Amino acid sequence: MEELYDVIIIGGGPAGLTAAQYSSRSGLKTVVLDKSAAAGALAYSHKIENYPGITEAVSGSELLDLFRKQALKFGAEYVETQVVGVNFDNAIKEVYGSEHSYKGKTVIVATGSMGRKAGIPGEEEFLGKGVSYCATCDAAFFKGLAVCIIGDSEEAVREAGVLAHHAKEVSIITPLKESTFSVDDPSLPQDKVRVITSTRVVSIHGADFVKTIKVKDTNSGEEKEMPVDGVFIYLVGSRPVVDFLNASLPLSDKSCLMTHRSMETSIAGVFAAGDVTCGEVRQVVVASAFGCIAALSAEKFIHNRKRARFDWSAV
Ligand SMILES: Cc1cc2nc3c(=O)[nH]c(=O)nc-3n(C[C@H](O)[C@H](O)[C@H](O)COP(=O)(O)OP(=O)(O)OC[C@H]3O[C@@H](n4cnc5c(N)ncnc54)[C@H](O)[C@@H]3O)c2cc1C
Predict the structure, then answer these.
(1) 15 lines ligand 1 (CB under 6 A)
(2) In this predicted model, what pLDDT tens digit does every residue of 234-246 receive, in sequence order?
(3) Secondary structure class of 117 (helix, strand, coil)
(4) Prediction pTM value
């Protein structure tokens, strides 16, 4: 039988993990569904020195590890999975991960704002027809085929490892002169993965499915066609990450999620926190505070309380 969670949190950044810490500490059955521990604004930050209590600068990923450990200590579950869809039509909400679906009484959306608008010519046209943003979801469709990865973040490199189990050949394309990771990385099968540096993908072409990409050498400016069957894109921007919601929640004209002061959205039982919301200040301490409020509001909603309760140790 499928488990019923009190709180499903989408996103494992400071907003999502703070919400998880509060909701699990209050005794609520909580799961965090996170695309990658190496993705998100905090994971990409090299140095944080303005989060309260941090007297020595730490890397974003070190701080994120602490947030995660704290949430797990109080009983929250953490699942690495990309959320690809939701159904908020009923009292029990459903959230669809890349492999499983999850049912919950409440949902907190905390996916940050590192999303981007499809910007490469052909990207939108071939989405689902060779273009993908999730190797974990789609790698199996590319068995024995040649694919490329655009981007070289830690997340992109890890996804290259996933693709290499299925594809015949994986090319990681980066505009940098030198890749930011080691090609000897043990997670990357040497016989299948190659890195193409100083190169930009100009456009994606095909008929029913992707057939080629046009690439440009950033040193010489020379352009050429490269045959590929799949294009996996791992580039980031600064738009709220809301694509997986498929218009289930209303967005502002800036594509952010609108909430009440309690962080509840216009759907009862669905909350949002952090950079994905329309808050003006994008900082770790603010995202965490939003996560705290969202979790307390979820607890109040589940128990039908008039006021939020915030000191469980005294009860
Ligand atoms: C380069 C840089 C430097 C910064 N420096 C500072 C600083 O010095 N001090 C400071 O206070 N703030 C800083 N910030 C801002 C701060 O990092 C953000 O405000 C904060 O991380 C927002 O937290 P969040 O939880 O809302 O989003 P994020 O930290 O972006 O986390 C979002 C999470 O959602 C997950 N996710 C996304 N899509 C999906 C999906 N479909 N399914 C499942 N999970 C998903 C991601 O994996 C990620 O874990 C910086 C930001 C950047 C980019």
Answers:
(1) yes
(2) 999 999 999 999 9
(3) coil
(4) 0.93
